[in-house]
Structure formats: C-alpha cells, structure tokens
Amino acid sequence: MLLLDRITRQGHSGPLAYGSRSVSVRHMFTLGTSFGIDGNIITSHLNFLRIFPQRPPGLIDVGLIKLKKGVNAKNFAQTLRANISNDVDVLTMQEWIKFENNYWKTSTEIGFIFAFGVGMGLIVGIVIACQILYTNITQYLPKYATLMAMGYKNSYFVWLILSQSLFLAVMGCILGLLIASGLYYVTKQATLLPVYMTVQRCLFFLILFMCCFSGVVATRKLREADPVDIF
Fold it and tell me: Are 221 and 137 in contact (CB under 8 A)?
C-alpha cells in the first residue's frame, strides 16, 4: 500500500525504496480498492520474501500463474489440482472472484451487516406496505361492504388488494432502483469501492413477495367485516 501510494504521488514508475530495500516498478495496472486493502503489488515469490523477510517461505497466501496464450485455464487448473497437495487451492480467475465474493458475504462482519440490513429492510417494507393497504381498505370499507352485500365473493376482494400490492411493488421498485443507484454512485465516488447496482441486486421478486404478503394480511379486515355492522 505504501509503495502504490508513492507511485501514485509521483505519477510514473521507477526505482523506489520500500523499507530497507530498493525496488523497481515495471508496469502499472488498475485494480481498485476493496474492503480490506487500498492497493496491490504483484511480484515474484522471491522478491516477496525479500521485501517481507519476517514471513516464513511457506506462509505465502496467494500465488499468480500466468498462462501462455491459448492454454485452457480450467483444464490447466484440473491438471494442477491432481498433481499438488490438498492444502493448496487452485482457482481460475472466475473461481477466485466467486470465492472472494462468498468470503465477504458469509465470513466477515461486513457481509453480516449487509444481510442484516436487507432483512430489516424487508421487515420494515412489509409493515409499511401493510399499513398502506390497511388504510386504503379502512377508507373504502363501506364501498367494499356494499359490493359484499351485492354478492361479490372474498376471492374478488383478495385479487383486488393483490393488484394494488403489485402496483406498489412495481412503483416502489422503480423508485427504489433510482434512489439506490444514486446512493451506489455516491458511495463509489466517496470510497472508490467498485459498488454498483445490478439486476441481481434489484431483488424484484423479494419486493413482490413483500407487497403480496402485506396484501394478504390486509385482506383479513375485509374477511372479518360484516355489511350489517358497517351500515
């Protein structure tokens, strides 16, 4: 991180001092930041041990193998797994990305906080949607009672409330998508973290479930209403 900070300030590559050793930067690459580190240095295993002499040789965490053009990465990884000890994981680039994503989602405090936030948002959304639909039913309860007295079945009212729930889900998803995209952009600009809105993160089916569940709960007031009592 210190090395990359010096390179960024200088604006060019060249010989630098890292601790008591002099290192030479050959190329620059753009990778971005993450939750754990601010920058990365790619070097050979020998230079790594020279820069960090306190690290035992067998304690290297990650190694990078550059394949020649035309070599199939998956086949090479399978061959390497069959000829290497079980205490070493061999991953392709896509497998490494998936491994890192799962690690931050399931094994860190940040992943727990995000999952907890989604759960709390779901609960709050159910309460708000249920309150909106419940208020709407209460406001038009005499009209609903008139339709019930005319012979309309409960299934008609359930479908009517679920239609309103679907409308809330669609409009809420569009509005939430716009707001979330703006917040993602602000977060990315402030922290330089590669966060952005995707279709998978939209969770429309979760929003649809939330509103439909709220609609089913809200219809209880209609099923319990008696036209005689209302009039």
Answer: yes
pLDDT digits (tens, 9 = 90+) for 169-214: 888 888 888 888 888 888 888 877 777 777 767 777 778 888 888 8
CB within 8 Å of 109: residues ≥ 6 apart: none
Tell me the DSSP string of the chain: -HHHHHHHHHTS--EEEETTEEEE----------SS-S------HHHHHHH-TTS-GGG------PPPTT--HHHHHHHHHHTS-TTS----HHHHHHHHHHHHHHSSHHHHHHHHHHHHHHHHHHHHHHHHHHHHHHHTHHHHHHHHHTT--HHHHHHHHHHHHHHHHHHHHHHHHHHHHHHHHHHHHHH-------HHHH-HHHHHHHHHHHHHHHTHHHHH--HHHH-
Q: What is the pLDDT of residues 106-139, one digit of tens each?
A: 888 878 888 888 888 888 888 888 888 888 888 8
* Residue 125 burial by Cβ neighbours in a 10 Å radius (0-12, 13-18, 19+): buried
pTM for this model (two decimals): 0.61
